């Protein structure tokens, strides 16, 4: 391996250690609770809390320790006006929609091939957990930690290889870290776009805000809208529920329209202050075909296969 392959291999191993640590912590916590009070494991609220603690809080010091050993390059900061932020928000919803369609199509094909139904584990968790818990953990805490893990830590250390390299590696790792085929595609697209926004602005607060809004719509607002739609379908006269559904549809359709128009106008991304210091002859080969990234990807592929079989 050359020096650049070794660099990305180290990145891969760091995130592999992080992923394995989160898994081990979850096994330990689940077993401790199972021994002390196994009935709690049947409570989806408890499972949601365990997932958040083991995926974000407990392994955070490990990834922080591993990544702080790699030199950081600061990004040039730039503020976003409200118009650009709304454009980015529209693009975020559009990419999520596209990724969801791809994910549903792929899971449908796999399900038909193996004569089984494949459910989105996170969606099942959202539908079964308390809505206030979803608000705190899925909509706020999750996006904050994920943007630090997969944008701040990662891009600050890979940006020397150029914006496109940072975007690619952020998208790939973020997509695989979701651990299931249902979420991979939209996580990949959103991960790449959030990386673009972070590099463009140099401020993680913008990607955190975008991430919080999209998760809020998916884990809290959508649950409320579905309940209102079910009330209307039962032929009950409920003007409040009708207003909720109509407003939600207007917001989503407006966001998709803005996003489609915005994506159609993106011909070439330009980044202020994010000049490529090290140009790679074969970026994809250097990024992916090294021991660390290969083991990381194989780990998540095995996790995805396990999820499909169970």
Give a summary of the structure in a few sentences.
The two termini are 38 Å apart. With 310 residues, the protein is an all-alpha fold.
3D architecture notes:
- The chain is mostly helical.
- The protein is built from 12 helices and no strands.
- It has helices at 3-37, 44-57, 60-67, 82-114, 121-128, 131-158, 163-177, 181-201, 204-233, 239-264, 283-288, 291-309.
- Helix 3 (60-67) packs parallel to helix 6 and helix 6 runs antiparallel to helix 7 (163-177).
- The longest helix is centred in the first third of the chain and has 35 residues, at 3-37.
- The two termini are 38 Å apart.
List the helices and strands and how they pair.
Layout: H1 3-37, H2 44-57, H3 60-67, H4 82-114, H5 121-128, H6 131-158, H7 163-177, H8 181-201, H9 204-233, H10 239-264, H11 283-288, H12 291-309
Helix pairs in contact: 1-2, 1-3, 1-12, 2-6, 3-6, 4-8, 4-9, 4-10, 6-7, 6-8, 6-9, 7-8, 8-9, 9-10
Strand % is under 5%
Q: Gap between N and C termini, in Å?
A: 38 Å
Q: pLDDT below 50 for ≥5 consecutive residues: which ranges?
A: none
SSE run:
HHHHHHHHHHHH
**How many β-strand runs?**
0
Q: Rg from C-alpha positions? A: 20 Å
Largest sheet, strands/sense/barrel: none
The number of helical segments is 12
Helix- and strand-based class?
A: mainly alpha
What is the 3D shape?
A: globular
Mean pLDDT over the residues: 89
Percent of residues in helices comes to over 70%
């Amino acid at each position: 391996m050359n020096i650049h392959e070794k660099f990305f291999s180290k990145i891969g191993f760091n995130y592999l250690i992080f992923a394995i640590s989160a898994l081990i912590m979850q096994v330990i916590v689940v077993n401790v609770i199972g021994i002390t009070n196994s009935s709690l494991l049947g409570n989806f609220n408890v499972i949601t809390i365990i997932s958040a603690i083991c995926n974000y809080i407990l392994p955070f010091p490990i990834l922080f320790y591993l990544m702080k050993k790699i030199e950081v390059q600061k990004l040039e900061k730039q503020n976003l006006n409200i118009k650009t932020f709304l454009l980015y928000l529209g693009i975020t919803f559009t990419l999520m929609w596209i990724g969801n369609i791809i994910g549903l199509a792929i899971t449908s094909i796999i399900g038909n091939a193996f004569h089984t139904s494949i459910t989105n584990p996170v969606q099942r968790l959202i539908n079964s957990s308390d809505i206030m818990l979803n608000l705190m953990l899925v909509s706020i805490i999750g996006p904050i930690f994920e943007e630090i893990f997969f944008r701040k830590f990662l891009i600050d250390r890979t940006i020397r290889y150029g914006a496109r390299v940072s975007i690619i590696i952020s998208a790939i790792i973020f997509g695989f870290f979701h651990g299931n085929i249902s979420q991979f595609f939209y996580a990949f697209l959103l991960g790449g776009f959030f990386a673009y926004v972070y590099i463009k602005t140099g401020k993680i607060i913008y990607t955190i805000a975008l991430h919080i809004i999209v998760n809020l719509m998916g884990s809290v607002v959508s649950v409320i809208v579905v309940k209102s739609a079910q009330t209307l379908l039962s032929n009950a006269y409920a003007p409040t529920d009708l207003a909720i559904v109509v407003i939600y549809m207007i917001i989503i359709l407006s966001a998709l329209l803005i996003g489609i128009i915005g994506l159609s106008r993106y011909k070439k991304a330009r980044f202020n202050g994010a000049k490529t210091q090290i140009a790679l002859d074969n970026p994809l080969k250097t990024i992916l075909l090294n021991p660390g990234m290969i083991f990381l990807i194989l780990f998540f592929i095995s996790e995805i296969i396990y999820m499909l079989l169970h």
